[in-house]
């Protein structure tokens, strides 16, 4: 049942991934799930770029060099993490949002629709036993130096994917009742 999958969804980080590849068919299934996200005025703003193989390594190198270039006091552990995370993932999907050229709705609605598409991806990965994680480093503002982004398109982060071996612990959330006011 979907409720059980929602409760089971977790961030599974690249350090937890094993070396098992993800088939193109499974990546396509995850992307198809994304495409069924709700979208106001049917703008369907989500755009994805799938990185595998050498392209993942190029991404890690780009991010680490951009970090060293832009941070006045770069930390070596962060440089290494930026290089290694894409290598550890079976696939990295760049999460992008294409702004409606007519600006027929507020930008936040298109960002929200893209986030819903990513949630669909995450739930699909959970069902398929694929670990995933949405990373939004500050460096995403430089992604137009790495990808050819269209006019009005912006990168919102990276969706790391990989199989994992360890048990993912259950997360304890505060009761939903603490976050709801009945009127």
Structure write-up:
With 183 residues, the protein is α+β, with helices and mostly antiparallel strands. The chain has a single domain, classed as 3-Layer(aba) Sandwich (NADH Oxidase). It is built from 5 helices and 4 strands. The protein has a 4-stranded antiparallel beta sheet with strand order 1-2-4-3, with helices on both faces. Helix 2 crosses helix 5 and helix 3 runs antiparallel to helix 4. The radius of gyration is 17 Å and the shape is globular. The two termini are 30 Å apart. The mean pLDDT is 97. It is an enzyme of class 1 (oxidoreductase). Its EC number is 1.-.-.-. Its cofactor is FMN.
Main attributes?
NAD; 16% strand; NADH Oxidase; 183 residues; alpha+beta; YdjA-like; globular
Roughly what fraction of the amino acids lie in strands?
15-25%
- Overall tally of structural domains: 1
**Terminal Cα span:** 30 Å
- Specify the overall morphology: globular
What's the mean pLDDT score? 97
Helices and strands, in N-to-C order?
HHEHHEHEE
What percent of the residues sit in helical stretches (DSSP H or I)? 25-40%
What's the CATH first level?
Alpha Beta
The CATH topology is NADH Oxidase
How many E strands? 4
**Helix- and strand-based class?**
alpha+beta
Report on the biggest sheet. 4 strands, antiparallel
**Spatial sequence of strands, sheet with the most strands:** 1-2-4-3
**Count of helical segments?**
5
Which stretches are low in confidence, meaning pLDDT under 50 for 5 or more residues running? none
What is the rounded Rg?
A: 17 Å
Q: For this structure, what is the CATH homologous superfamily? A: NADH Oxidase
CATH architecture: 3-Layer(aba) Sandwich
């Amino acid at each position: 049942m979907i409720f059980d999958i929602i409760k089971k969804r977790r961030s599974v980080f690249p350090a937890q991934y094993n070396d098992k590849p993800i088939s193109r068919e499974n990546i396509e299934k995850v992307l198809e799930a994304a495409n069924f996200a709700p979208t106001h005025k049917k703008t369907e703003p989500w755009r994805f770029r799938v990185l595998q193989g050498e392209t993942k390594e190029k991404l890690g190198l780009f991010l680490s060099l951009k970090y060293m270039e832009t941070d006045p006091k770069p930390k070596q552990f962060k440089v290494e993490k930026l290089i290694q995370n894409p290598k550890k993932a079976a696939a990295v999907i760049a999460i992008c949002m294409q702004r409606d050229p007519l600006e027929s709705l507020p930008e936040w609605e298109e960002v929200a629709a893209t986030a819903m598409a990513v949630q669909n991806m995450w739930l699909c990965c959970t069902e398929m036993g694929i670990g995933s994680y949405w990373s939004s480093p500050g460096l995403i503002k430089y992604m137009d130096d790495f990808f050819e982004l269209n006019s009005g398109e912006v990168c919102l982060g990276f969706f790391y994917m990989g199989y994992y071996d360890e048990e993912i612990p259950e997360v304890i959330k505060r009761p939903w009742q603490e976050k709801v006011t009945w009127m």
